[in-house]
What we know:
The structure is a homotetramer. By secondary structure, chain A is an alpha/beta fold. The first copy, chain A, folds into two domains: 12-200 and 371-382, Rossmann fold; 203-366, Dihydrodipicolinate Reductase, domain 2, CATH 3.30.360.10. The first copy, chain A, has eleven helices and 13 strands. Chain A has helices at residues 66-75, 96-99, 134-139, 159-166, 173-178, 188-193, 202-216, 246-249, 264-275, 308-319, 368-382; strands at 56-61, 81-87, 124-127, 146-149, 180-181, 196-198, 225-231, 254-255, 281-287, 294-301, 325-327, 345-351, 357-364. Chain A has a seven-stranded mixed β-sheet. In chain A, strands 2-1-3-4-6-5 form a six-stranded parallel β-sheet. In chain A, β3, α3 and β4 (146-149) form a beta-alpha-beta unit. In chain A, α1 (66-75) packs across α11 (368-382) and α7 packs parallel to α9 (264-275). The longest helix of chain A is centred in the middle third of the chain and has 15 residues, at 202-216. The interface between A and B is large, with 55 and 54 residues. Chains A, B, C, D: Pfam families: Semialdhyde_dh (PF01118), Semialdhyde_dhC_1 (PF22698).
Amino acid sequence: xxxxxxxxxxxxxxxxxxxxxxxxxxxxxxxxxxxxxxxxxxxxxxxxxxxxxxxxxxxxxxxxxxxxxxxxxxxxxxxxxxxxxxxxxxxxxxxxxxxxxxxxxxxxxxxxxxxxxxxxxxxxxxxxxxxxxxxxxxxxxxxxxxxxxxxxxxxxxxxxxxxxxxxxxxxxxxxxxxxxxxxxxxxxxxxxxxxxxxxxxxxxxxxxxxxxxxxxxxxxxxxxxxxxxxxxxxxxxxxxxxxxxxxxxxxxxxxxxxxxxxxxxxxxxxxxxxxxxxxxxxxxxxxxxxxxxxxxxxxxxxxxxxxxxxxxxxxxxxxxxxxxxxxxxxxxxxxxxxxxxxxxxxxxxxxxxxxxxxxxxxxxxxxxxxxxxxxxxxxxxxxxxxxxxxxxxxxxxx
Amino acid sequence: xxxxxxxxxxxxxxxxxxxxxxxxxxxxxxxxxxxxxxxxxxxxxxxxxxxxxxxxxxxxxxxxxxxxxxxxxxxxxxxxxxxxxxxxxxxxxxxxxxxxxxxxxxxxxxxxxxxxxxxxxxxxxxxxxxxxxxxxxxxxxxxxxxxxxxxxxxxxxxxxxxxxxxxxxxxxxxxxxxxxxxxxxxxxxxxxxxxxxxxxxxxxxxxxxxxxxxxxxxxxxxxxxxxxxxxxxxxxxxxxxxxxxxxxxxxxxxxxxxxxxxxxxxxxxxxxxxxxxxxxxxxxxxxxxxxxxxxxxxxxxxxxxxxxxxxxxxxxxxxxxxxxxxxxxxxxxxxxxxxxxxxxxxxxxxxxxxxxxxxxxxxxxxxxxxxxxxxxxxxxxxxxxxxxxxxxxxxxxx
Amino acid sequence: xxxxxxxxxxxxxxxxxxxxxxxxxxxxxxxxxxxxxxxxxxxxxxxxxxxxxxxxxxxxxxxxxxxxxxxxxxxxxxxxxxxxxxxxxxxxxxxxxxxxxxxxxxxxxxxxxxxxxxxxxxxxxxxxxxxxxxxxxxxxxxxxxxxxxxxxxxxxxxxxxxxxxxxxxxxxxxxxxxxxxxxxxxxxxxxxxxxxxxxxxxxxxxxxxxxxxxxxxxxxxxxxxxxxxxxxxxxxxxxxxxxxxxxxxxxxxxxxxxxxxxxxxxxxxxxxxxxxxxxxxxxxxxxxxxxxxxxxxxxxxxxxxxxxxxxxxxxxxxxxxxxxxxxxxxxxxxxxxxxxxxxxxxxxxxxxxxxxxxxxxxxxxxxxxxxxxxxxxxxxxxxxxxxxxxxxxxxxxx
Amino acid sequence: xxxxxxxxxxxxxxxxxxxxxxxxxxxxxxxxxxxxxxxxxxxxxxxxxxxxxxxxxxxxxxxxxxxxxxxxxxxxxxxxxxxxxxxxxxxxxxxxxxxxxxxxxxxxxxxxxxxxxxxxxxxxxxxxxxxxxxxxxxxxxxxxxxxxxxxxxxxxxxxxxxxxxxxxxxxxxxxxxxxxxxxxxxxxxxxxxxxxxxxxxxxxxxxxxxxxxxxxxxxxxxxxxxxxxxxxxxxxxxxxxxxxxxxxxxxxxxxxxxxxxxxxxxxxxxxxxxxxxxxxxxxxxxxxxxxxxxxxxxxxxxxxxxxxxxxxxxxxxxxxxxxxxxxxxxxxxxxxxxxxxxxxxxxxxxxxxxxxxxxxxxxxxxxxxxxxxxxxxxxxxxxxxxxxxxxxxxxxxx
Lengths: 398, 398, 398, 398
């Protein structure tokens, strides 16, 4: 088939009036949608056998946690993906609805233990397993499967850094070399070509989206980048911990993991690459009395002669074609509530009181753009579907 | 047009693998999705000129409140409806995003004053204006417009009862006679045929869904129906009131409007009709520290010889074909969190400690099934589209 | 000692202008707070050697939970009690501040294991251990110690009922006979004379305070008493459970323990005693997104010829001399926020829409009047001090 | 009178075993309650007639707001102060309980309009009126009254700066010269001698307490002091605003007043004085979904050769004698929950990831140490009573 696959995506000002259906990017027509059970990379190309209305089979490993259930929630209205496999070792044999009754209206298979999973029937896998358990499991998957891994296990390209911060040997060093870091807007082409995507952490997503372009353009200094971040509690997952009880979280705030949070090397890896030189940041996360939402308030020194207007203009231009990254009009303050439940990231920049400094704010939903939403965005690209498919649900406010 | 319109809807166990597109109910095929550019009211009838992908034009009156913004949020992914008109008298001339930044990615017209609105270009209208202002405005709309009114102004069939509870004369007595009460699952055929639907209140929705079928079947007594209801704060709207400040609501609970809440006559109207005899209920609403969500805990006396199993079976059967009303498996307790942001209602029944009594629980999102979601569900039917179109977004948890 | 001790207490309208200091009730010093009733005092040393300003030594068993820390919080400003012993088996050797940093300014001994505790140096003990572990431990304490037990282990007078509801044999049957049920306002004289007080549960406190007097006076029917109760999460304690995570509790409500909550037999025990006949209630607790606070909304049938005014008058009269139980003026709705952090209970009654029925509301802070505050109130009485000593901290709002 | 008044206060390690009664600082005995300063109200006046147990009469101007009600809450257990006058113009004639039912158990006079207030019967006044209305009112008070003003009207010593930030002329320029800035721990002697104290703002309190000593000792640089502050909503008061509705605040975070918050000049005034040179800070406040509590996370550059240990040691030494300022042990992270409802400030310092930088955190309850508690602390000193009187209520957690 001659139709070249386009990497372009829908510009924000020209949203389709028709619903996004299950069609391949660039194919232009809904009818030619192509089939076949043995679906892999080539299939979405020359022979394109997927027929109209037929869906890609998706597996979710670790479906009983919050990122897993969020994948299921979002895929419920996805035009092209269909969940046919879910694993959860401690809940094997149970329905997802017994664990997450909010998903009871879904027609889903029962969960199985990962060792009992039949991967021959799925085309792509979202891996929502805990950090540290994931490397071996992904290494054991059939090589034709597309994989988006939501754990931290493949995010750090430097294996030594991984071993230092995670205090354990890396379990899949060869696979690490293939892993593509899936911050979609900053790494789209590599994601399209990837077989294994390491889905970014929530803090790194909210921080790199505004900072990487500014560092790349040398509009800000790499010295004294100070990041005061605030996160909802869902980032800590669903496991029972005293410190995450309602009574311990409600009506208060506290910092945690000061200087030691494991997202630090991931943040610095991305910023250093953008700046083409080693960047060290100050990063202090705070736990907030909210389930979802994340704000990074970032204090930076502008480069000589650079103004707030320059920063705003550069970011606006950089993201103007992006559906999910919105640089707000001047003066409008980002609120986490305004992206809740959605895949959007809102960004703005403000002049600081100290001359030459700027304040950059970015907000996301930590479970969506900071985890499961971006994972689907990446899988859409890897499968050659519309990048926004299944992700245009609007933020829920109030 | 020969094609008889069906009142059937998608059974839950056979959800479509294809996305719901913009097609008319009963037309049988997605391909025949109708003709012609010049789409106006007649099109949705005999000559059905709507072409594939073409959308119906929708107006939202009172877009700057929570029910208005919720209509906009939900319609953003609706396959058939497109908002082309929004009014907000005090915000006339402004963009919706200036009032609700969470909707900034939408491509919408600016808001206008209702008196400046051009209704000739819209096919249907959601009226989200405050109680008391709505009767005159709707009476002045072109008669070809389909209207779903989210206020209380047309809910009470007995004009005298309206005047007694609302302490003002009714402003559109003739129109009242045409108004159809839009509790969709209980009144579907009338909604389909309606031009003006009075969308139910949130409490009445959560209460009538389980009670009306049980009263109709005489499975419960009409005596001593005690309803202890709990609501999120968004039901009070966005206007600034001391009693709805964060500091006044957070970390506490209180009853309000004891015996005097204006939803009482609406509840009793529906239950009396179902029971074919006057029903008086005890109804005590409580304000909860949550933005969305509503639970009605209903204490009833079962009829002689009736068991909990009978209630569960009757409700299960009554709603088995409904997408949005789910009778939970025995013993599973409804949580408001499990329907948050969605159009679902979860119901269950429990045996009481006092012999012969039962406890019925139902949960909804007060802004969706209790307001804007049900309004869209009704408009879908009035426009002859799939009832579930645009409403299959799953509940958001956590 | 000749000084006859009075059981009277300070009327609300004549609050002392002097601070409550560390004096025995009835000792005549500092305001001559009144005599009467013979009252032995062996527990506090045979010869009653306590001098003005000297404090009683108190032990807290199970200091690392919420009720334990609440005892410590409240005793920090108690004029007569001083904590000299704290136990916490899993935190033995640690300071309380390491577990509860909010108490860091207190000058307290480190916690020890209960088996290592030296009880010879304390005069009274608050037992904040989990249900089921308490009977044996209290049975092993020196018999001269005054004990207030905050667990459920001694609340049910009928050992068989205990064994049925708690599904385990009672471990201290003899001691059970001595245990006095410590709902202070309803059982004051027995508490004064007690050596071991079973401190009531939170729900039973909020329910019996208004209902027992009305049942005793036969002003309400014992049939169809329907209690819809709402509680903050702190009642569930500090142990890590998935269901009590912030993400699981915030922004939602759900019932739990329907018909099976272990407070049911305690409630029915008290109400049956008041009514002098078996009372069975409908009791449905709900979990609320708040840390503290409890509301019981109680739906009752009034006796023939009884009016709301009668109920209000009877309760007002019954509690007019009580510091901690306030019957609100007619029409004022109780809010849990208005008793937060305090030992107060607010009550009111409302006419129902169903003729002959009434709605009774009572609110408390589940950790204070529902647990640690009432425990101190009881210990004050047992030690012959002012009942209100250390408990006049006002509710914290907002 | 010969008895020299001491400015010393109770060291933390030697808390009194006796309750703090109504006695003057330094007099050593409870019986001799007695004065010094010229003071009307005969009891406290020339002939020293105040007897044990007699209380000072206090007025609260603006009692119907949150800082006013908080004064009332805290004074309820104050051993020496008694409220005999309350004003609230719009609620004149009403009881405080009608506005704040949580204070219903207090025996208080009804509120009057400020113009109708009889100031001849009070010894001290807390002024809780809105910014901008206070200058004229205080200027009109009898000159013998001690006044603590909780508004911002007298905080800025430079009248021009006041006029610039508040955009209005100063209404009491002469009085401004007498006003003492009441950050108690940093300005104690001046407070003792003051007649009019300008009670600090909440942000300035939380920021100056740790920063002023470090700047004074030149342990940190005055360049690039970056303050990311987080506040509960009660700081915004009780007036009805859309932006403070529960639905707008819950489950989210947002910055506000970026670079323009009126606490900036107050912060810089204090820090500049401590540093003896102009200091400009970056200050970004964030609104949190909590009613009470404030955290300032402060990012600073240490002076050459200075270590984290130096900062910790300096602050520990500086505050070791203070009851209300607690420098936490190394590594312990401050939580706002741990000071909730109390007059305590918790502080700690942490090494940053960027070499040479430190992170300083301080937490307070914005309504207590950040407003009404510190006001009482100041009034205690102005009246020559124990500084901690009425303020030893412990933080409420959970």
